[in-house]
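Exercise 3.2. Students should predict the tertiary structure of the chain below and write it as structure tokens, then compare their answer with the key that follows.

Predict this chain's 3D structure.
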Amino acid sequence: MSEPVNQSAAKKSKLSPEMITAISAVFIGLCAIGISLYETSLIRQAQKGSVWPALGGGYSYNQDGFSYLLENAGVGPAIIEYIILTVDGEPIETWDQYFDKLEVDINNYLVTQASGRIVSPQSKLDILYIPPQRNIDHIAQEQARVDVEICYCSVYEDCWIVTMNERAKEVSSCDANDRLQFIQ
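Answer key:
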């Protein structure tokens, strides 16, 4: 014959409704924490995107003169950490050295300090302006020898390096190391 089944042991092995409810509550709580962390990361990305700077540069040469300009086409401010100006691959420290290297005599020019400056969104900054004068054509013709590297950061300390010939690339920080920075 069959043996009697111990009913109390069978009842203990089954989950009670209270236990199922408790396990479900813990599972739902863990899912809510996961969703909250994911939403937080999305919000952080959106905040960074809402203040993303996009700094670019170049030169302008026309009847009004010659200028190097920076433009922040982004939606957030660009904090310029450093500028490295080179002629023929050699770093230049001042505008006077720049003119000497290009073998041009310029006696009248305006300079705006850019390193450490904040460039507002959708604004331009002339870092060098040379009004119309003799020898200005020579500077424009020699621009193939010149490069400018600018490292800038956002308010969230995301940083990029941009040159006259390349698009901005993201870097971990603006560290010029021992390279000669342009003083202006």
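Discussion points: The helical segments are 7-13, 17-50, 95-101, 136-141. The chain is about 30% helix and 30% strand.
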